[in-house]
Amino acid sequence: MAKKGSDQTKPVPKSKSDTMEKLVSLCKRRGFILPSSQIYGGISGLWDYGPVGADLKRNIRDDWWLVNVRWRDDVVGMDTSIITHPQVWSASGHLDGFHDSMVDCKSCKQRFRADQIPGDVCPECGGELTEPRKFHLMFRTQLGAVAEDTVDVYLRPETCQSLFLNFKEIQSVARMKLPFGIAQVGKSFRNEVTPRNFIFRSREFEQMEIEYFCHPEKEDTWFDDWLAKRRQWFLDIGIKPERVRPMQHDKKELAHYAKKAFDIQYEFPFGWQEVEGIHNRGSFDLSQHAKFSGKDLSYFDEATGKKFIPSVIEASVGLDRTLLAVLCDAYDEEPERVVLRFSPLIAPVKVGVFPLVKKDNLPDIARKIELDLRRKFVTAYDEGGSIGRRYRRQDEIGTPFGVTVDYDTLENETVTLRERDSMEQRRLQIDELTGEIDRACTRQS
Ligand code: GAP
Q1: Which residues have C-beta atoms less than 6 Å from ligand 1?
Q2: CB neighbours of 353 closer than 8 A, spacing ≥ 6?
Q3: pTM score, two decimals?
Q4: Which of 274, 293, 314, 427 registers the highest number of CB atoms within 10 A of its CB?
Q5: How far is the CA of 318 from the centre of ligand 1 (A)?
């Protein structure tokens, strides 16, 4: 619920807007991301992930979970309901405060956030603007079967609130002591008035959030620690360091719950934009939920015998937005090919297997190799067209390795292993393949 820097599209240089157009078209053509309900003409701000898109998303999500939950003994995971008690949103401040003020241009009919336009005329055509109107960003629905008995409830606009609600329970059942965190990955919903920039700002999206509870005296130390670790994660999944930067919110940009905040930004083709927010939420959320629920959400420190409300450091990243950053970062054009240079760690397909020709038993051997590799990796098998074309097809979805079965294979059980980025090929024994690919595709630290 952080206040955002402007993402109204500023005029983007032609070459950069071309990159977005090409990327959107590649995503559709190769089955990464498709408009939702396409056969009915699509629906604004909603997207479907195709086979390679779903695997790319899963790999990013799994890596986040691995380093932030599985490999840490001070963070535990949860998977909570999307619909909660409606009072949650009164306590959190969303019911009163989560809206955008919008104006429409009477001439060109474009819609803008009122706080993001410099003057009092349309920034696109100079036309007259309507009075600002408030749009609530939470999706409302009804719970209950009988009309008279229904209660208004909301689809959650962020995943973190349930982590605050469960603080006391999880501390007890998981036998945690401060400092400790609770993490969750899940869908969030915001009725964005101006969804834009492909999947950057959509109406249904996935968040990966950590709420880290600590002693108030340690909040600055933990804030710095999380900011550094979270920035490093973007580099670990292959994003270029020069396209990632931390950006502090100044006082007037701070969300109502935040004492201090940094965005981690990525340089998209449409400019530097937030992919993750690191917030010091202080004791705001636990205090609010204690007040509204009447339950004690304080922490008892056995060492000092004192009770207090912990501070919370939040690291909140959008999965879809990270995936867009990964796509933008990986996209590369060479004279002969378009290539997505994903880190092997998150590449959706790890290896393509190809018989050099469609005869002399080569397809059967290639098929067998592919079926063996498939037990461990997401693979592709392709015997259609020239070998060069088959390599190009895998380059375009970012497959880091290609295995080719040729006539030497019949003689000595070796194959060639082609690397996507260098396009170099070396010969290996078939039984060396799994180890070789695994080393490149598995996170070591
Ligand atoms: N719990 C804090 C929170 O939700 P936020 O800055 O509103 O903070 C965190 O959202 C992250 O969620 C953002 O950095 C962004 O990556 C992602 N996000 C927010 N709104 C989004 C939208 N409409 N579409 C895609 N991702 C979004």
Answers
A1: 1-2, 158, 160, 190, 192, 201-202, 205, 207, 209, 274-277, 314, 316-318, 320-321
A2: 366, 367, 369, 370, 373, 379, 380, 381, 382, 402, 403, 405
A3: 0.94
A4: 314
A5: 5
